[in-house]
């Protein structure tokens, strides 16, 4: 009996030590400042995509017509000049981010992860980890959305709802306030990969998947917040009542500029679910003639740090 009691006591001690040594909540630490690694989609992350370039986007006709009516001049209006990008901008912005861990002041448990603006034009994301439910669909919508997260192994999975209307691409492809987004945050040493899966029943024919990569910045010299935005009318003409910059159907003079620049058909340039699959490429093989040489953005997107991104460029 004495021997059995000693064995039981030793076993309980081993279990207690193992439990104490195991991580209680977080599987990976995401804290720190992270610099964007702009090794993909250099034009989109740098100077911005071409007008009427909707390639790779599974958008529907409604989204296409809305995008063709867009002009960036609308941001010159006082009521629109300080509008934030919605949170999916995290996936295609060239900016740094700051991730903070929010602890319960009593228990020390992780209440949330906070992904701050870090120099990009958007509100911070708070990923709640305490099991709280998502609010009613009738609750207010914010530029930061409402996000809850859970761990799947060493991967943080976060689901966002209550997003404001925004964009999928900086040339005006719309994202509705019916959209939801699932984020997957994965860390490998000093590299953080964020994959987002966007579902929009209003503008997407199927889910859109985007990724962004970040490298840990040990210097910690990136700002945690954006500079204050002061709304004002940038162009006097927009002070006139009812003056809203836009293109009426069929009047966008850049509707086919991108397609002509790269020898594409409008069907290919205008995107859609069918255009993102290999079968569509096969349809173009017999008719597509690529440009003879690169004439613009040949070595990056105009200002991106290619050396830091590890890109080897050779202009033709």
What keyword list fits this structure?
single chain; 316 residues; alpha+beta; nine-stranded mixed β-barrel; two-stranded antiparallel sheet; 7 helices
**DSSP summary: helix tally:** 7
In what order do the strands lie side by side in the largest sheet?
1-2-3-4-5-6-9-10-11
Q: What summary fits the major beta sheet?
A: 9 strands, mixed, barrel
Low-confidence stretches: 11-25
Q: Structural class per helix/strand content?
A: alpha+beta
Task: Report the strand count.
Answer: 11
Approximately how much helix is present in the residues?
A: 10-25%
Radius of gyration: 24 Å
Strand fraction? 15-25%
What is the residue-mean pLDDT, rounded to a whole number? Answer: 83
Shape: globular
SSE series? HEHHEEEEEEEEEEHHHH
What's the N-to-C terminus distance? 84 Å
Summarize the SSE layout with pairings.
Elements (H helix, E strand, L loop, with lengths): L1 H20 L10 E5 L5 H4 L15 H8 L28 E7 L6 E7 L8 E4 L17 E7 L2 E7 L4 E4 L3 E3 L4 E9 L2 E9 L8 E9 L40 H5 L4 H4 L8 H7 L21 H4 L7
Parallel strand pairs: 4-5
Antiparallel strand pairs: 1-2, 1-11, 2-3, 3-4, 5-6, 6-9, 7-8, 9-10, 10-11
